[in-house]
Amino acid sequence: MIWPHVASCRTCATQAMNRSERNLARAAEELLQTLIVSVVLGFTMLDAANGQEVRMGLFSVTLPVIAILHDDLFVGEAIGYLDRTGTIGLRSVLDPKIKCVGNFRYTGLKTGIADMHCDDGADARLLFDALGAFSGYGGGSTPKGRASFTFGLDPQEAASHLTLPPGKKLVATFEGLRLESAGP
Are 1 and 63 in the same domain? Predict the structure, then answer.
């Protein structure tokens, strides 16, 4: 004979186990949905990069940078991290011995500050605006003149956001980028 209170305890245990299994299944389903959304969002963000060379690490993204610092063309990379900070490394196209390095950080949803130091003694604090998840532009000045830069943009798009020296245009050649005379 089964005592009534024992039978009811078996029912309670079964119900508790079923509830626990349902909660576990629900949590697994939510985790799977979150993973799927993250993957889809990642591919969407890659698409938003306009086909530019975007290298993604587990916790970082590397983007091409084009800059005009005191009428000289610089090229390089920016590496951004999940905490909305990053590093920038540039070299002069005219004189590759001249390099600039710096850090950046977002100060708002789509705005930030980049601090740069160049081998030729120029220092700059530049403000920037993001156009998307992996692109944007910024500018300011150095003691040697104006400064502007883009990140994650192809040369044609970048040219519209750069402050080019008077009478010059940005040209992409087989050897890389350069400034050329804009002609008469």
Answer: no
Distance separating alpha carbons of residues 71 and 149, to the nearest angstrom: 12
pLDDT of 52 reads 46
Are 165 and 101 members of one domain? yes
Please tell me the pTM assigned to this model: 0.69
* CA–CA separation, 38 and 108 (whole Å): 23
Question: Residue 147 in contact with residue 126, Cβ under 8 Å?
Answer: yes
Tell me if 32 sits within 8 A of 24, measured CB to CB. no
Residue labelled with tokens 């938003």: 48
Question: Minimum mean pLDDT among 9-18, 154-163, 171-180: which range?
Answer: 9-18
Beta bridge partners of 172: 177
Number of domains in the chain: 2
Residue-range definition of the domain harbouring residue 29: 1-48
